Amino acid sequence: MTSLAVGSLVWVENSDIAWIDGEVVQVKGQDINVLCTSGKTVAVKASNVYPKDAEAPSCGVDDMTKLAYLHEPGVLQNLRSRYDMNEIYTYTGNILIAVNPFRKLPHLYDSHMMAQYKGAAFGELSPHPFAVADAAYRLMINEGISQSILVSGESGAGKTESTKLLMQYLAYMGGRAAAEGRTVEQKVLESNPVLEAFGNAKTVRNNNSSRFGKFVEIQFDRKGRISGAAVRTYLLERSRVCQVSDPERNYHCFYMLCAAPPEDIQRYKLGNPRTFHYLNQSNCYELDAIDDSKEYTATRRAMDVVGISSVEQDAIFRVVAAILHLGNIEFCKGKEIDSSVPKDEKSWFHLRTAAELLMCDEKLLEDSLCKRIIVTRDETITKCLDPESAALSRDALAKIVYSRLFDWIVNKINSSIGQDPDSKFLIGVLDIYGFESFKTNSFEQFCINLTNEKLQQHFNQHVFKMEQEEYTKEEINWSYIEFVDNQDILDLIEKKPGGIIALLDEACMFPRSTHETFAQKLYQTFKNHKRFSKPKLSRSDFTICHYAGDVTYQTELFLDKNKDYVVAEHQALLTASKCSFVSGLFPPLAQESSKSSKFSSIGSRFKQQLLALLETLSSTEPHYIRCVKPNNLLKPSIFENKNVLQQLQCGGVMEAIRISCAGYPTKKPFGEFVDRFGLLAPEVLDGSSDEVAACKKLLEKVGLQGYQIGKTKVFLRAGQMAELDTRRSEVLGRSASIIQRKIRSYLARRSFIMLRRSALQIQSVCRGQLARKVYDGLRREAASLRIQRHLRMHLARKAFKDLCSSAVSIQTVMRGMAARNELCFRRKTSAAIIIQSQCRKFLAQLHYMKLKKAVIATQCAWRVRVAQKELRKLKMAARETGALQAAKNKLEKQVEELTWRLQLEKRMRVDMEEAKTKENAKLQSALQDMQLQFKETKELLAKEHEAVRKAAEVVPVIQQVPVVDHMMLEKLTSENEKLKAMVSSLEQKIGETEEKFEETNKISEERLKQASEAESKIVQLKTVVYRLEEKILDMESENQVLRQQTLLNTPVKKISEHLQIPVTPNLGNGYHIGELNKSNESQSVTPVKKVGIESDGKLQRSNLERQHENVDALINCVAKDIGFSHGKPVAALTIYKCLLHWKSFEAERTNVFDCLIQMMGSAIENEENNGHMAYWLSNTSALLFLLQKSLKASGANGATPSQKPPTPTSLFGRMTMSFRSSPSTNNLAAAAALAVVRKVEGKYPALLFKQQLAAYVEKIYGIIRDNLKKELSSLLSLCIQAPRTSKGGVLRSGRSFGKDSPSTHWQGIVDSLNTLLCTLKENFVPPVLIQKIFTQTFSYINVQLFNSLLLRRECCTFSNGEYVKAGLAELELWSCQTKEEYAGSSWDELKHIRQAVGFLVIHQKYRISYDEISNDLCPILSVQQLYRICTLYWDDNYNTRSVSPDVISSMRVLMTEDSNDAVSSSFILDDNSSIPFSVDDLSKSLQEKEFSEVKPADELLQNPAFEFLHE
Description:
InterPro entries: Dilute_dom, IQ_motif_EF-hand-BS, Kinesin_motor_dom_sf, Myosin_head_motor_dom-like, MyosinXI_CBD, MYSc_Myo11, P-loop_NTPase, SH3_Myosin
GO biological process, one term: actin filament-based movement
Protein name: ARABIDOPSIS MYOSIN 2, MYOSIN X1 2, myosin 2, MYOSIN XI-6
Organism: Hibiscus trionum (Flower of an hour)
Strand order of the largest sheet: 6-7-21-8-17-11-12
Family: Belongs to the TRAFAC class myosin-kinesin ATPase superfamily. Myosin family. Plant myosin class XI subfamily.
Number of strands: 28
């Protein structure tokens, strides 16, 4: 490498960490010495090192095609740098590399993050799987081409999780609302946990390793909605069912089932997984942070979603349990030669359980495991199997059952999801195993590596195609680029008839073939093939040179694993199962195939599946995600260079880079190229040339050959970038020498000036010290004289003060004595005066009371005469009231009597129960005593009998005295009869007691019924009393009317004529004629009510029709834009006055409110017209304010205790209310009617209308706010990044490369804000609503700008910070110029973006500590946000550094502590779209007096029916 010079930075190979960087210290031709960063100096060849980009950002680049040097160590260092900052995703062109973080990062995958990537251009935001999925979706919609996303990587690299994220985003983009049942996207997403439960297991490299390949086809309709899906699976690892190596696990479903609820475990006769042979081959039974019982529940729930019924789920887990029981069947030698039987009772138990779960015959199951039936032409031979063969037969049965079960689940998922035959597009997501190379590589690794060879060929062709398309797009001359084609490896494996798979199938067809004969056949066939070799010291292994490296395969199990057949006995057994599910897994075969085991090649079938997969991929536009596992420990924050490098090679990433390097590996945009290398030829920047011409002149000046100038980029050959950097380093070195010389000169001059200044300061200090000493002596002499003078003065003053204080003390005592004498005299005088005044007061008061008593007696006598006259007049009207009062009192007495009787019954019941309890206790004790006596007597009688028996057996002399014996017998017999009589009498008493007890129970039950009936009667009586009270209140109101009539001297006829008038409005507010008649019939007939009942029916119907016409006239009027009056909406006040006059608020039922709501809904259909929306926001908010001030809830108490009930329910009561409100009775009521807002009692329709009106205010507010957000969203995407300029934005000529003015977009935002503000002001929208709109809008601006800043690295620059800061100054100026009542705290809502931009424009960030950043500069930002900004920051003008590594480390520690909290880990802000105000806020901002001068609509003022609006 001729361009290397001393001081150049290079990469050197290292055996420990793959590559290490260093600096060239010596160059000797092709031999160079490099000082590594480890401190060692190594000697290497120049051809073995790679140049290092000294200006590469420490945080890496998000797209590795932007690297100045695209080579192996550069790629590795870039991935490591980004991984250290938790940036796990990186692009290589359109390929996404995902490094597994081995920790949860929930903030990267929430719905808000999906919304950020929705519609964003590829590469605009940070690398992410959502970006790949969005690009595929957009291409499918726009171009009409099906897409595919290929996710690959080794086990544990994160393929399955990446696939889940892709499917999650596609479901987010193509989801639709479910009309019924589950949606397609829900089923697709929930199929993942089901397939993981039955197809994933723990391996050495991964705790959740997919042991099968998966290709998910998601179908879309023409609108981009998901219309169907299908899941294809490849090569399930069957052998894992029976063979598990330590520390791996079997499939997850086995452990889930063992951790199922107790009822399921009992049903399937399961237990601890350690007791099952298929699970205890490994010591690993549990996974960290995984609860198998919860996973079991989640899997059952996912099965429900994908359409697997509960019956089918039970059948599935019954089959899984049967497989576990099959594994526990052990065999021993039978009675016959080479025969076998179950070993012990435990094996028989598991055999019976397996037969029971599979619902097949126990004997047939035993025979299928221990015997084989050989069918010949002449006879059928039954062959017994030895114990080893029987165990193999058992494992074969378990594997084929599990394989069929897995295939059934996949087919069920596909049939449940459904496929759309009309679908034109699809997006396929391929989750396939990565390249595998272990110590022992068997048939599974052979098939997996064949898959990767196929996909690598497809990948190479795609990368080559993309590279050529870029050259064509840039219109440069290019020649064919050669790349390594692996077609020879594919021919070696799958070519017919001489490929490895063909030879394997041929060997499987011959019964006597073994793995050794198969290996010898391979050695003979491919001995001259360059990709095939035979390892030394091995008889049956072979090695294939794959694209990712050599892999040695062991052929011991190749033949067995390639055979896919079902043993005939197993087939017959399971086909005959009584369980339809099990028999459905094994449908009956054809006649000829059922007689014997038929061979089917797994390798050939897998090859056909691969061909079909490649055909599908070839018909789609591919996208690639390469997953990388950073370490084998499966722990976070560990990056093993060699391991990652090997995976990049296996994944084809390095091959893609090699293809890129074969052409033009360095591609620099013109602006960046001029910025970086313009100093090599400063003269090319002079004049008025553009960037393209500047690049051409610069390249011609430096004398490079072979480069290409495209339309937007400069294309350089390999090595040319290093040569340019070397020349640039030389120029920078010379410039550095000049700068150093100038700096040294400056430092020497500054040192001389400082020395001279110091000498002058020392001299001045010495002179000052001498002068201070002379001055100090003079000052001490003057001080001594002053001290003497002050001492003499002090002594004289002290003597004078003592003399003065003595005189004052004497004077004080004398004055106090004189004052006390004077006080005593004054007290005596004042006491005498008080006594005299009290005496005079008592005499006057006594005279007054006598006079007052006489006057009152006279007045009472006169009032009695007047009252007696009045009483005679009112007796007729009061008779009904008295009768009702008497009825009420009578009912109250009845209630009290019934209550007393009920309490008496309760007391009697309690007393009776207590007596009964005592009597029972006495009887029981007596019974026990009698039983005890009976028992004692019985025992005594038994003893007597025994004594008699013994006496009879003794000497006959005793038998000569028969008299004594007869007496004893008679005595005992009489006592026995007495006891029997006593027992019978006790039994009789007990029977009588039980009968009494039953009778008492019956009586108590009857009394309980009577008590409950009495309680119900009390409730009814209380209801009647309540109704009577209402009637009494109505009668009292009638009495008041009569009293007013008497006082006004008005005849009853005139009152009746007057009271007929207010009936009509009440009918218009929901009161129906039937209701009025009913209420009239329920009341006692009075003369006034008779007048109300005699209203004409036709008149009432005409009034109703007139009322409907009035409502229609109001609706037609206010539906138009009738403007404003004195700054308030006319329509709102007009509606309110009409509702108030019609008394609609007090109506129980009315349709006026429904008409108004329908009118408002139709009026705001045009949501895009902000002027129209503002007009209705002003009207609805004003009307809501009036309702809030006017309505009070029904049943609210008045201000004083004496206030009557709010609204009488009878017709007479409503008439009375209208009579009271008439101007002729009360001047105060008339004055209240003239007020704009009146308190009324709101019924349910009015309160409902108020709620609906509040909802419309919120809806219109949200529409105006969202319209403004939509208008600003397009401008905000342009405001976050400054227009691209070169060298500060200006060439030497002063002409800018950037075409757009930086302030244009920001001015557009300000114009939009001003336009909306004017519209809202013109429509007199309340200031509180305007303030909330702009506050939320500024919050939206803050969220959008801040999120874009964190998601786009090109925005986190110094110059971009200055650009955004200037734009924010425009918004600050707008906030200051706008009145505070409209702008409010809008400017404060931009705190996140203000602090972030303030941090970007700070110089010397590396000197700032974390405490200064978090406390002073950016206190509002979280640690995650600060870390993101610090790591993304780069200076495009001065190449200044970001914060120090210590600050980054501190942030990383704090982030690790909060990593488990999804909320705290998120660095993205979320926009708040809630409604930020309430009705109370609106009420506080307006005043009632503001509506006093508002005039109603002119159109209605001319209508005679609306004359009340003139008031």
